[in-house]
Amino acid sequence: MKSARMIAEHVQSGGSAVAIVQETLAKIDADSSNAFRETFPTEALAAAEEVDRNIARGSPAGVLAGVPVAIKDNICTTEGRTSCGSKMLENYRSPFDATAVTRLREAGAIVVGKVNCDEFAMGSSTETCHFGAVKNPVDSSRVPGGSSGGSAAAVSAGLVPIALGSDTGGSIRQPAAFCGVTGLKPSYGQVSRWGLVAFASSLDQIGPFTRDCEDAALAFGVLRGGDPKDGTCDPAPPRPCELTSTNMKGLRVGIPTQSASDGNADSVTNMMTGLRKQLASANADVVDIDLSLLDQGISTYYVIATAEASSNLARFDGIRYGHRAQAPNASPDELMALSRSEGFGEEVRRRIMLGTYVLSAGYYDAYYNRALKIRRMIRDEYLKAFSSCDVLLSPTTPSPAFPLGGITDPVEMYLCDRYTVGANIAGIPGVSVPYGRDQDNLPLGVQLLAAPFADESLLSAGAALERLRDEANIDGAWNA
């Protein structure tokens, strides 16, 4: 699959968008990763024909003209279903497009289908999806990560150059690392959440999966900008994302001291050790940063996220809409309880119960209120760190992709997000960039974080890291 910018340039200069979409749909049909929930061949080809007609008549072409894109199953589209990977919404059809989808279409992108995800975006492996687990295209015996596993797999397999995902605690960056692609979680408020089915409203953010940071910047420039339908969105108008220097020289790179220890896989430790040397050779200014609250992130996140989830998912009761149990003699309360028990999977039920507990009388102050206070402390710690560095660098994940069914303990699964949840808690941007492989040829990812709304600087640093990687010919160099 060519990059998004190459496809757009080809179509803008007279190439056929229809031919590109036809090729894309054929690749999806032949794919065995279960990345796609469904495709929209009739609608996608009609949209491609319209792009070709507009260009033929001399009308301005969008920056994503003819570029095929995939949309995570928890982001609303008028085409197909928005089922959030759940039996609860298995056949739900949205009457509107999410703002992010509308902006992609306005830029000339072609929505070719919806991709699978963990149920209601709750998971780190895309194994909780009601429509079957997604396989990692790099190794079909491994998970693609989650919750946006279908999005990551679609880009990794070369099915589409751009896929939208959502990131509540690492659900873009973690699967990007596992699948060897680039994943951007923008600053909270940079991209409208209108049309994203809410998991945890103060943490959720829509972002793109791409092959590299230049394509991520292209997509981000289309997605960002104010939206009156989302009161938490920065009111600044949409504008292109311009990358600046892609040179590491003089860049202040902070490396948390906590990211090089505490049970990392050997390949991840070796990657960080080697990368530190490469940064020094590239004349980057490498500084050690103490993030003393890093280990508080998981517990803080799972109090706040589950509390918000229990509130947001209360609307799915099987009475107003959603899966309804077949129980003609049940009272309304019994029908609601039965419908929710049948409609939600085990992980979603677990998080709803945890969230209800931490919000209940007698426990609110001990858990939820305390988590909010620690959240502020974590954000302040990040802001202090950015007074000493331009970006923070760490592994994206503690290990490469694990086998399908390889983690059954929920707490062990939650710990996969150790390095990613902090960005959501603090509302800062983060990007995962592929950086070599381990001894089993599994991709490894490096995460960069930046100060709030420094998304352009973050992507520029990511592009510089990609350049450093390519110049050093990093490919499987981090063997234990």
Q: What average pLDDT do the residues reach?
A: 95
State the secondary-structure class.
alpha/beta
Rg, rounded, reads 21 Å
Overall CATH class: Alpha Beta
CATH homologous superfamily title? Amidase signature (AS) domain
CATH-defined fold name: Amidase signature (AS) enzymes
Provide a count of the helices.
15
Tally the structural domains.
Answer: 1
Helices and strands, in order, run as HHEHEHEHEHEEHEHEHHHHEHHEEH
Number of strands: 11
General form: globular
Question: What profile does the largest beta sheet have?
Answer: 11 strands, mixed
Largest sheet: spatial strand order: 1-3-2-4-6-5-10-11-9-7-8
CATH architecture verdict: Alpha-Beta Complex
Name the helicity range.
25-40%
Uncertain segments are none
The portion of residues forming beta strands comes to 5-15%
Distance between the termini: 31 Å
Quick take:
This protein starts with a helix and ends in a 9-residue tail after the last helix. By secondary structure, the protein is of the alpha/beta class. The chain has helices at 4-12, 17-30, 41-56, 99-106, 149-156, 173-179, 213-223, 266-281, 297-312, 332-343, 346-359, 364-385, 410-414, 421-426, 455-471, and strands spanning 36-39, 68-72, 110-115, 162-166, 182-185, 206-210, 252-256, 285-289, 391-395, 430-437, 443-449.
